[in-house]
Every structure is written in C-alpha cells, then in structure tokens.
Amino acid sequence: MKTLLASTALAMLAGAAFAQENPMVGGAEMPATNDIVTNALNSADHTTLVAAVQAAGLVETLQGEGPFTVFAPTNDAFAALPEGTVETLLLPENKEQLTQVLTCHVVGAEVMSAALAEMIAADGGSHPVETLGGCTLTAAMNAAGDGITFTDENGTVANVTIADVDQSNGVIHVVDAVLTPASAEASDTTEGAMADQPEATVTAEAPADDTGGNPMVGGAAMSPSMTIVENAVNSADHTTLVAAVQAAGLAETLSGAGPFTVFAPVNAAFDALPAGTVDTLLQPENKDQLTKVLTAHVVPGTLDAGALAAQADADGFVHLQTVSGDALSVQIRPSGNAYVFDESGNVYRVTIADVMQSNGVIHVVDGVLLPAS
C-alpha cells in the first residue's frame, strides 16, 4: 500500500488540475503567493496555532521551500483540549513535545484534497498519512462522502473544514481538531523526521539567566535583551495581541529602536470585547482602525513604574499621549496598584508591571484600551 509521502507526483498533478482561487480563512484573504506562515498569521482563527509554531521555533522551517501539506487546527480546536494543555505545551521546557504535536500536522509533500480522495478510494476507503512528526494519520471520506477526515493514533477524528488553501510552499487544509501522537511523551522521531529540513531559529527563548529580574508572562521568560515583539510572541497570554500587531503591520515598528511603553492586553481582554469585534478589526479593510486601536496602547519612551510614580500628581495620576494621538491616564494608588484610564471611560488594572525590553517596557493590562468613539 502506498503511503502519502510516496504519492507526491500524483498530488502535484491533482494540484495543477484543480487550481482555483483560494478560499478566505479566519476572515482574511490567502494569497497563493504567500508562504504557509505568512498566510497563517493573517487568519483570526489560527492565532493559537501561530503562537505554538513560534514557541516551537518552526517558523523558518514552514517558511522554507517545502513543499509541505499542513493540517491547520483552529483556535476552537485547541480550546477543546483538556484545560491547561495548551498552556503546558507552550512552556519552554515542553518545546520538544510541542514540536512533535505540531509536526504531526505536517506532511513533506504538497497534497490537494482531490489527490487524497483518489488515494482513499484506491486503498478501499482509508489511506495512511505519514507525518514529519513520526505519527501516522488515517485519511478517509466523511459519512456524507463530500469531505475528508483524519484520525490520529489516539482515535481523535478531525474534519477538513476548509480544503486546498494553496500556498507558495505547499497547501493548508483547515481542520477542526488537534491531532496528537500515540504517546504523550515526546520522542526522537521528531528530530529524525525533520533532519532534512532547514533548522528553525526564528523564535528565541529567553535563557534562564537572561531574565534580568523580569517577571514571567504567559508562562514564558521575558528577556530584557529581546525586543517587545520577540518577547510578546513567547507569551501564551498574548497570542491575540501578536496576531493583531502582525495584521496591522506594526511588528517591524515595535521591533525598532524605540523606546516604547506598551500596555499589553491579554487574550481574555480581547475575548471580553463585543462578539465579532476582533474578527472585524483583523479584516484587511479595517487595518487603519486596527492600527489606531493598537497604537492607543503605545506611549513613546520607557516609562516603568518608577518613572510613572515620579511624574504622578497629588492624586497619583500621570497623563500620557499615545502614538495614536489619543490620551491615556495612569493612576498609581496608595496600594501600589496601577490603573489605566482610556478616552472611552474604561478603567483597567496593570496586572504585571515593568517587563523590561531592549527597546522599552511592557505593562500587562486586563482590558483593551479604546480611543474615544
């Protein structure tokens, strides 16, 4: 029985025969001229996957020539895992296990859905799919016969919800479940399967002795020798913020010399916005509005808690102007807690202060700061 990796030629022929305009994914267009990572960054439905790929250091690999087929679980798929699973996998000490889970969603060939359907039919209703993570998935048609499913080594079934999202270095099939290896323990198979791929080095972990006294954020060490963006991508609590920064095209700016003070809302802060708000802001046509919201969280200069306290008036207030031109006020209360007031009348608490960066400082906040309506 032929495996999927041995069927590359058939896949290429099928891909050419069924070439068509890409579907939208996560509210964003998917240009076939972009690589897998570049397109995934634009999908509002894949912020958790992107954060995981960054934490595992697989960005450079999946931006390479490939070709790759990626079965891309949505945010809801990750959210359906047992409580705490994602947070645990994103911890630096679990990088090897995270890498194996992610590479169990990657095949070292470009295979379109039509090719998969032919293989399934040729093999009598199911077809083995060997992944770069060393685990084998079983591809089959769904009960209605109009879609493809993948079953992992633990019996989890993932449905392909969006097929054939063509990329410059392969293809993405969106799936509704996370596929896992048979063993919860990471193994050496990942290293062997990826041996012929480029080494991934995009996301740097902060060494244990390089925190400079910084607090942990989102389960990750925060290195003062790294930029705001480099540290933010390692925080499991800031995947939505990172996706928004990337969608707005602000990653390069916030990786620059600065310095900047960033009030960084956690994922739960974005989740607390009215339903659909984040998805709407992440659409390409709303880039200007998204940029204004994000830059309303950024103040020029490095304003740590000491600097803010030194500038505070008798009531503990410091009045600031953000990069967007909007006003923020920070109040340092007698308890030492800090609260941020935006132009829309919202008040949010600084939950983690003084996360020092090479180009400024981050203060984590529990709400999204909004310009005046």
What does this structure look like?
Strand 5 and strand 6 form a beta hairpin. This protein is of the alpha+beta class. The chain has 2 domains: 190 residues, FAS1 domain (Roll); 138 residues, FAS1 domain. The strands form 2 sheets. Strands 2-1-7-6-5-4-3 form a 7-stranded mixed sheet. It is built from 16 helices and 14 strands. The chain is elongated. The protein is 29% helix and 21% strand.
N-end to C-end Cα span: 62 Å
- Please name the CATH topology of the largest domain: FAS1 domain
C-alpha Rg (nearest Å)? 22 Å
Order of helices and strands: HHHHEHHHEHEEEEEHHHHEHHHEHEEEEE
Overall average residue pLDDT: 83
Number of strands: 14
Structural class: alpha+beta
Give the CATH superfamily of the largest domain: FAS1 domain
CATH architecture of the largest domain: Roll
**Tally of alpha and pi helices:** 16
Largest sheet: 7 strands, mixed
Question: Low-confidence stretches at least 5 residues in length (pLDDT < 50)?
Answer: 1-19, 184-209
Sum up the overall morphology in one term. elongated
Percentage of residues in helical conformation = 25-40%
So what's the CATH class of the largest domain? Mainly Beta
Strand content: 15-25%
Number of domains: 2
Spatial strand sequence of the major β-sheet: 2-1-7-6-5-4-3
